[in-house]
Amino acid sequence: MNLTRRHMLILLPAAAIAWKHVLAGTPEASPNYTMSQHWWGMLMDLPKCIGCGNCVRACQAENDVPDGYFRTWVERYHVTDYDIENPHVDSPDGGKKGFPPSKEEGGKNFFVPKLCNHCADSPCTQVCPVGATFISPDGVVLVDKTYCLGCRYCVQACPYGCRFINPKTMTAEKCTLCYHRITKGLTTACCESCPTGARQLADLKNPNDPIHEFLKTHNVQVLKPYMATHSKVFYNELDGSVR
Amino acid sequence: MNVFKDAGHLFRLAAVFLVGGLAFVGVRALLVPKSFGEYGHYRGNAMAEVAARPVNYAGHQACEDCHTDVLEKKKSGKHVHVNCEACHGPQEKHVDDPGSVQPAKLDTAVLCVRCHEANIAKPKGFPQVASADHSNGLACDTCHQPHSPAIDTGGTAGGTAKETTGGTK
Questions:
Q1: Is this complex's ipTM strictly greater than 0.85?
Q2: Where do the structural domains in chain B lie, given as residue ranges?
């Protein structure tokens, strides 16, 4: 066979066109929403949380979360006077039906709502072998259901226990920060239904968002800062015993 | 002595590689979704698919557009910052078709205690009651109107409920 310079000149542009076809993307779907202008997080004002479970119910109603699984849940902490290292934590049905009266007296008692921390350096996205989970350009950790194999690597990798395998689809599922709502200008279902304002959606790229003033003037912490996940769920007045 | 005398099979090898490479590129172009790699090592369209989910909670703005009277009433009471759907539940269907889809009637006996039942872990300043001995079995809305819950002292509302204690500690 004789592959001449002429053949090469014909073949190379064809290959280049094919490659460009591979790399080509489609434009953004939502016309009024520009991903690059947002960087989403959430504020948990713990002294306001009353453990009513509205957020858990709202999340389930909004996102069809199967029974017994949670994208967000509320924990009740009981820290005894002399053993701060070993708090007693309960979360009956994720706090969905509220909390029964405490059996324990004294000590510190408080509620801690939890959800995906939408880490800027999230361990769960790093372990996905197929590119099914990722951090969107606006800072939300999402799962591509059509790509997910259900291998559970991400479920294990999340230091906060925020992921689960949906028993129906057998794919990884987690809080989307109500991506279908925040891209339409609404707040998340949990924030919408929180009666005390303990949960507040925060856009860290919006200079007018009250989150900036709040972070400057309050004792704010993230969960497990030593994991260096750069969590974007900020807890006001977080007790040191919270895991 | 010609070094390139038997160079023909080198070209054949190169052609095999080239055909293989082109086949790879072609098959990849067919199998890999167009939006893969648009923003990173994932399918760019996945975000639009997640965002396409229908909304269930309409948001308080949608409620307030029509129910201005309730909004005014709420402004006079402590529930001013409680969003409508915190109690009334998801109402997007009602917003889409206000005529035929009506929100369910609410039962204050269930609803009020969700937040106001006394619990040791609740913030100290939050108004809490032990519902069993607070109202002598009367429904909450006998005395308190949920949209503006402070008891109207000029009214005829009965009941001995007075204590709105904080948590026991």
A1: no
A2: 8-51, 106-152+159-169
